[in-house]
């Protein structure tokens, strides 16, 4: 038997053993909708924000909540973090195709980039690479200038509300522990399951240190810059998606119904009252950005309807490098990364920069500034962390309480409302948005609920002295 065959058998055996270890039960039942049913809140999409919102709203026993999701239960490949690579391009992925402008991304066939978004309970929190990164306090202070109420202290309250930080080194250090909580539903840890991966991480961190990048305890700690192994939404070998952390524990609530394999195609708006009501929309797709990551690009893309058919995928124009400054920054970044070659480790292994021949750059002298610009322009890819297509702000789509301007009874709660690109992966901020939105809605509909307002929150970690 050829070797690859026996190893694939082994893989299947492993998967079977795993599936017994991680019982695939406990997801909410599928709810069969009938015509004319009424709910107090209809949440479209069970992603990083939707599941949080539906679960939190259904804590109020007299709120009847419907959560609508196009996909079904997370498969074993989602639950077990090590198997996640098989999710991209599968039926658990919306498999969108994003497009580059003319002259950009020529290294990608057809100038098309697969754009991965989870189509499953938990959305992309069930299919992503599990990185838990909040972004920087400054991101939120700037955000707060556009939409009051989103300052760092206010959002920190919700980051803590959702999180169960299982890593002791973080909780033992008061400067760090202050920023975290062990009481929330989303488990966060830094598993060292494979000694080999830990060693690679260590080597990488040493290289960074040699380049003058400080090593810090964690990426969500009080330091603004620095390098550390990231935190993951994993605990006990299980992915802590929003389906896992929020929907499973809420699955028996009689006032929370989850309609799976259901797609909203329309939101009806009463022309006289401008109030949104039932009907079934897929308008608010959560999109995300960024690999040598341009954290704060100036270029902007667009998401547009392809047709009037709600089941058609949207047109995703990445818009990369529409602003020429981004290209300068990216080319400088590539050159900076190249200096890794001069660190002790890479010298030891005699690392070299491969002389890639990039489609579109064949005629440019390898290694020149012009070459690196061409390289950056044509190899650019995406980590699928786009934000801001339905941004909040006075002149934008929603207000700071996430209400669609001029329409009653309709809010947008997902990555699309983020007004400025945060310094990191989007899953954590989007879960935070779900938490904060739930409190805003409760405050609007219940008399005895006061949502958190960070003004008198005692903070020592983020005083001016730190940033
Ligand atoms: C938080 O996680 C720990 C494991 O690190 C667990 O023992 C504890 O019960 C969790 N707390 C909550 C509130 O779920
Ligand atoms: C590595 O160091 C050498 C010698 O100091 C220098 O000439 C070279 O430009 C460096 N390479 C990179 C990619 O920084």
From TrEMBL:
Domain Glucose-methanol-choline oxidoreductase N-terminal: 39-278
Keyword Signal: yes
Residue span(s) of domain Glucose-methanol-choline oxidoreductase C-terminal: 297-434
Keyword flag Cytoplasm: no
InterPro entries attached to this UniProt entry: FAD/NAD-bd_sf, GMC_OxRdtase, GMC_OxRdtase_N, GMC_OxRtase_C
Family as reported in the entry's similarity comment: Belongs to the GMC oxidoreductase family.
Listed name of the protein: Uncharacterized protein
